[in-house]
Amino acid sequence: MSGMSRRRWAYVHLAVVGALVTMGCGAVDGVRSDPSGVEAYQTLPASADRAAPSGRSAGSTPAVEVTRRCGSDYAEDFDAGLGARTVGAGPVELVAFRVSPVPSGHSPARMFKVMIRIAPGSQATLRTVTAGTSLAYDRARFAKDNIYSLSDGEPAVRFVGCRDRSAVFNGGILTTGPRTVRLEIIHDDRHLPVTVRAYDG
Fold first, then answer.
1. Is residue 87 within 8 Å of 195, Cβ to Cβ?
2. pTM
3. pLDDT score of 195 more than 60
4. What is residue 52's three-state secondary structure?
5. CB neighbours (10 Å) of residue 101?
6. Contact, 187 vs 158, CB < 8 A?
């Protein structure tokens, strides 16, 4: 085979391989698949949490200003050993942690972290029904010094899970006193009660 023929064959081979790779790594609904078939989700910036208020939807779902979506999650599942502390209803499960320390010694509201796990292909709204509490899941408002006011949180937050895997979202509950907090998980227009308690173990 001549040098020119070899070069032409190499170009054809590369073109065919490139076409096959493109077919195997296409994007569907904004989600790009890698060659192994495992979907890789783009990381959303913190500004996306409040980018598009959903307003009031049909039925009894409350208006929300903060929505956490697939791509703003930080894990697929809870850490091992947290099963006994997990509560939930519908497609949502929650794990509460200790009240966070405040280095300065004073904060108008204290936070205890509550991790939220959403089942694959699901979405739900979480709402607090306990006075003196709010939900802190807007990542742009997370404070390194743990100094918060109740207005740094929201009365309700919407969570949109990933299509084919569970998703865990970080955040917590701001409180001016209560360590036991009654919540509602709103899913398919059903209001499902759930109670979380700051971990003290």
1. yes
2. 0.75
3. yes
4. coil
5. 10
6. no
**Pair of tokens at residue 95:** 């794990």
Three-state DSSP class for residue 179: coil
Q: In angstroms, rounded to a whole number, what is the distance separating the alpha carbons of residues 4 and 52?
A: 57
Identify the band that residue 104 occupies on the pLDDT scale cut at 50, 70 and 90: confident
Instruction: Name the β-bridge partners of 196.
Output: 181
Q: Which residues contact 93 (CB under 8 A, 6 or more apart)?
A: 78, 86, 87, 116, 117
Which H helix or E strand runs over 180?
strand 180-187
Cα–Cα distances (Å) from 1 to 7, 9, 17, in that order, read 10, 10, 22
In the three-class reduction of DSSP (H, G, I as helix; E, B as strand; rest coil), residue 57 is classed as coil
Q: Report yes or no: 115 and 170 within 8 Å, Cβ to Cβ.
A: yes
pLDDT digits (tens, 9 = 90+) for 23-41: 333 322 223 333 333 344 4
Above 50 in pLDDT, residue 128?
yes
Tokens 């084919």 locate to: 164
pLDDT of residue 6: 47
Say what percent of the chain tops pLDDT 90: 65
Q: Per-residue pLDDT averaged across 122-127, rounded?
A: 97
Q: What does each C-alpha distance from 47 to 22, 72, 73 come to in angstroms?
A: 31, 10, 14
Residue with tokens 């949180």: 153
Count of other CB atoms within 10 angstroms of residue 21: 11
